[in-house]
Structure of DUF1559 domain-containing protein:
Amino acid sequence: MRSRSIRPAFTLVELLVVIAIIGILVGLLLPAVQAAREAARRMQCTNNVRQIGLACHNYHSTLRRMPPGRLVYDGTNSAGAPTKVVTGFLAMLLPYMEGANLHDIYDQTYGFDDVANQTAVNMEVAAFTCPSPPGDRTMPIYSGWNMGWTTDPAALDPTLTGFETSYQGVRGLHHLSGDPSTGQTHVWDEKCGILNETGSRFADITDGTNNTLLLFEMTGKPTHWLFGKVQPTATNAQFYSYGPWAGNNGVGIYNWSNDGLTKGCDTCNRFINVDNEASPYGFHPGVVVIVLADGSTRTLAETVDAQVFVDLCRKQDGNVLGDY
């Protein structure tokens, strides 16, 4: 009598157990993979600011001063009409960081907001772009000198756009000054940063190049971000004042209220990772990437003391820095 052969197979229960184990392993590995990816992105971001910092040093070696955060002067547009010509310092640095080809395309005879420069300003420059922020990085162009400082987003020309930069230079600073016990006042130090409108010499940085902030991360545009959450489309056109790599890159940094809803007030004492309009903002958990005037890079915690941040930004305040 022929015996029947029994084929080995998984039971349904065994299959479900295996699937559950695989799911648990994936759940354990996924955060580690995401952390590794973010570590790689932060390393690339750090390398970017290092390159820009070195380009600033090369610029200084050639012209004996740092680039101005922005240039604004009377000129004409490509149609021959009188206008203000606006160019940011990142555009000036292109020849000092292997960007000569793009520098040749970007015509600094005209402003970054001129139609003649649309091809150039919409190009992505890898060294100017942190890989961590999500979404499209092409943003509207706002140049208040030629738009009458309007706040109406409808006044923006939809045909004029530019590719975002993740890195900005310190031009000025809005901050609190005075004795906290008797009351502090909101003040505006217009030219306290290294990348002000005339540029600075190393000799001007009397606080020391290793104690003074040169560049900081401010990214995420054209999207408006507040404490890590996407906000509705900006209703104030001036939100786009800073952003394109070819535009106004010398920032007057704002201080913010604790809830992030008010800027530049007499109780505003926060700076980092609050709002990405005009203050340090990054997508690396808890920190932003910076480069100091000596070319060294590091991360700056969003919890850093406000006075320490103010002292870092001002090149001649004479204050002794605390830990950061």
